[in-house]
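Histidine kinase structure dump, as promised
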Amino acid sequence: MPTHPSARIAAVLLALEAAAIIALVLWQVAALAAGDTESLESAIALVVLTAVGAVAVLAFAVATWRGQSWGRSGGIVVQLLILAVALGAVTGAYADAAAGLGLAVPAIVTLVVLVIAVRAAGRGGAASE
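structure tokens r here:
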């Protein structure tokens, strides 16, 4: 079944986010290998949880590309979680506005495209190919 172009764009954006999370996993593994951790157990757990998150976001990207609603829904939840992290990055004792903005802008763009894709799917607006 052909999907709306906005769903394709959303899938690509989700795949880029998954790639960024995979890069984060690699960075965490490098820090772990360098002994740059205080708690080995916590560091390993964080690597595993981050890898699971990367796999989930990649699965949402593939499902969105295929026009499956659970992928779009999962992608929306991911964007809301990223926005919560961005808010945390700009508040508190170690606030960093640049980091918060760097997280928020792609999340907002992806969220908007996902909402457009959801609305298009709801109207049966699959692109005619």
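The chain has a mean pLDDT of 93.
lmk if u need the other ones
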